[in-house]
Every structure is written in C-alpha cells, then in structure tokens.
Write a structure and sequence with these properties.
A hairpin with a 2-residue loop joins strand 4 and strand 5. The chain is elongated. The chain has 10 helices and 18 strands. By secondary structure, the chain is of the alpha+beta class. The protein is about 25% helix and about 25% strand. Helix 1 crosses helix 3, helix 2 packs across helix 6 and helix 3 runs antiparallel to helix 6.
C-alpha cells in the first residue's frame, strides 16, 4: 500500500471541487450514477461488466471499472498485519476490503467482463521508509498492479495506490482517489514500480534492477507533478562533516524554497532558496551532523497541489536519502 511519507505535515483542507475529475470522466460517472444493482459477488460483478460493455469507447469502460473499484474497496490494514489479507474475488466483493492482489483481481475481472484486455503485473513497489536502502540482489515481489490494452497500446494502472494511502505502520487507510496512478507515464511509473518481467516497464529502454534499487525514495509529489529529473540519483550520500551536496530537480513548477529535514534527527531543519536556471532548481547543502540518518529535501511549490478527487493536502515533492557522514 502506498504510504503518506509526510503524513505528519499533511493538513487536510477539505476543499470541495479541488482536484475534481475532468470532463473525460463524465461518461463513467454517469454510468455509475445510473447503475443501482448490488455488486457483492463475482456473478454480480460480471453482470455489471456486461452492462459496461455497452459503452462504445474502451477508455470509458476502463474508467468505469477504475472508479467503481477506487470508490468501493478499502485497503485491508488489519488483514495485512495478521497475514490474513483478502484477495479472492468473492471475499473482496463481500467485505469490500483487500490488499493489492485483491484490488487488481477485482479490476481485472471487471475489465475483462467489460470486454477490455487487462493483465496483472507482479513486482516491487517502493513506498515507505523501510525501503530507504534496498539491499536485495534481485527483484522480489511485494506488490501487484495492472496493465490494460486500448487500440493496441498498453496503459499502466496502480488501482491500489490510486484508492488512497496509509500511514507508515498501516494503522488506518485514508480513502483519497489519486488519478495520477491511472494511465501513468511509464518512465515515471518505474521510479517506484519494478516489474518482475522487464517488458512490462513499457519503455523504449529497460531500467536495470541495480539502478532502480539505488534511486532515492520519492514521495508521491515527485512522481505526480512536473518533476522530470532529479539529482543525486543514488540514495546513499557518503560525506565528511563540512562537505557539501548539490540537490537538483528539473520541473516546470515554481519552487521558491527547499526545506531539509530528518526523521532520525528532528532538530535538523533548514530552509534554502534554490538557484534557478531554465527549468532546473539547485541547492547546495552542507553536511553538519555525523552518523547515519535520513535526509529529506522538500521542494516547496508556490501553489497548493491537489492530490485527490475532491480533497487536497499541504505537502511537497520530496527526495529522501540516506546520509553516512563521518567526522572531519
């Protein structure tokens, strides 16, 4: 489950109308508003899929399936922690709770019933601080998402992360639909998703696992805004006290400030004005604390960025690193 990395600084504003679905979702919303039948088992799901199939446009069919799942299924934190999480189709539909395997199972079955070719993709999803430094030699499976085909082209959907988020310990799930995970740019998608089968990266080149596992931990807004590149590209920063590190992002967004902080060192708190040239924002940070700790660089935008349908949070695009600093 996608975790809110900065949940302690998120302030729920509840601004109605903020981040509302665009007109491209009009047909899907109208269908679901008119569809009154109960969907509590696989037979009823198939019946709804056959109704969805009456829509001529494939993308509209997928949007209906996506909206229904994100609106009706909640992440099963209790089941996940008890290692008794739901994924079987009828169990998920009856209880309306699931982990990622259950989410993708419902979404794929509904798409298939609606006449859409849809596949499950297994791989590694990177989301929380426990993944700060990956020491796995090979990719392992801890997450599942979907790909569907429309007019010969494949599109990526993470129906689980699109439905909302949890805190780091998965004490509770917050429903907050995030349409960035619908038809996501494959290049950005692989910043925090690595499929077991590399062809499902859906990119012209293939990102190696050895490169993926060295990437910094990215919070949602790095991937979900206009950030196109970032540096350093490796998560571990090895320096001496007094050394400097340059942090850079390329983006069309305007970032007047960059905030540095650390969970392990709460007193580490510094705000810097970045140097801007073209679309690049650069800050030079001096290492002042010895030891091993996380270092979070928050690129603070001038505007409030909506992060869901009908809801918004005050949070920032973050790059999170592991600092290994030794004495002078």
């Amino acid at each position: 489950m996608k975790k809110a990395l900065l949940i302690f600084v998120m302030i729920f504003l509840g601004l109605s109308g903020m981040g509302q679905a665009s007109d491209s979702w009009k047909t899907a919303r109208a269908f679901l508003s008119a569809y009154k039948s109960e969907v509590r088992n696989s037979i009823q799901l198939r019946e709804m899929g056959l109704k969805i199939q009456q829509l001529k446009d494939t993308m509209d069919r997928v949007r209906v399936a996506y909206l229904w799942v994100t609106n009706n299924i909640r992440y099963d934190c209790e089941g996940m922690k008890a290692k008794n999480s739901r994924w079987a189709l009828d169990s998920v539909l009856k209880n309306r709770k699931a982990v990622c395997a259950g989410y993708v199972n419902v979404f794929r079955n509904l798409c298939t019933a609606a006449g859409v070719v849809c596949e499950d993709i297994s791989g590694f999803g990177r989301s929380g601080y426990e993944d700060l430094e990956l020491k796995l030699d090979t990719v392992k499976t801890n997450h599942t998402w979907n790909a569907y085909r429309d007019q010969g082209k494949w599109y990526l959907v993470d129906i689980t992360w699109a439905s909302g988020f949890t805190d780091d310990s998965c004490r509770e799930f917050k429903a907050n639909r995030n349409d960035w995970y619908f038809n996501t740019d494959p290049v950005k998608f692989r910043w925090d998703h690595y499929p077991i089968e590399p062809n499902w990266q859906l990119t012209a080149d293939t990102l190696a696992w050895t490169v993926f596992k060295q990437l910094p931990l990215l919070n949602e807004l790095i991937t979900e805004t206009t950030v196109e590149e970032f540096y350093p590209a490796s998560i571990v920063i090895r320096k001496k006290i007094g050394d400097t590190v340059q942090f850079k992002v390329r983006s069309k967004e305007y970032y007047p400030f960059v905030k540095f902080s650390s969970r392990k060192n709460p007193d580490l708190n510094e705000t810097v004005v970045p140097f801007q040239k073209d679309d690049w924002y650069t800050v030079t940070y001096r290492i002042r604390k010895e030891g091993n700790y996380d270092l979070q660089a928050d690129f603070v935008p001038q505007r409030i960025i909506p992060t869901g349908a009908g809801r918004t949070y005050v949070t920032y695009p973050d790059l999170i690193y592991k600092v290994e600093a030794r004495g002078e």
